[in-house]
Amino acid sequence: RERSVTLAWQPPTASPNTTGYAVVRNGQEIAYTGADGLRYVDTSVEPGVQYQYAVRARNTRGEWSPPSRG
Fold first, then answer.
1. Can you list the alpha helix ranges (DSSP code H) found in 1-70?
2. What is the DSSP code string of 24-50?
């Protein structure tokens, strides 16, 4: 049986010039999506292990947002 965690988020309203998103698990970046990537499926999870996720947005100037809370 495949184990996975599906993350989904809304685009930031304060920064309409988003070029992509970094997905962070337990403090480490594990994926990067483009501006249209508002969803990510993490298929590298293990049973019995607790994970903390965050998403950061990047704008056209290369600046990163603070990590999401949720």
1. none
2. EETTEEEEEEETT--EEEE----TT--
Alpha-carbon span 32 to 57, nearest angstrom? 10
Helix (H/G/I), strand (E/B), else coil: 6: strand
Paired tokens of 11: 């685009």
| pLDDT value for 12 | 81
Q: What is the pLDDT of residue 69?
A: 73
14-30 tens-digit pLDDT: 767 899 999 999 999 99
User: Quick one: which of 22, 26, 29, 30 has its CA closest to 65?
Assistant: 22
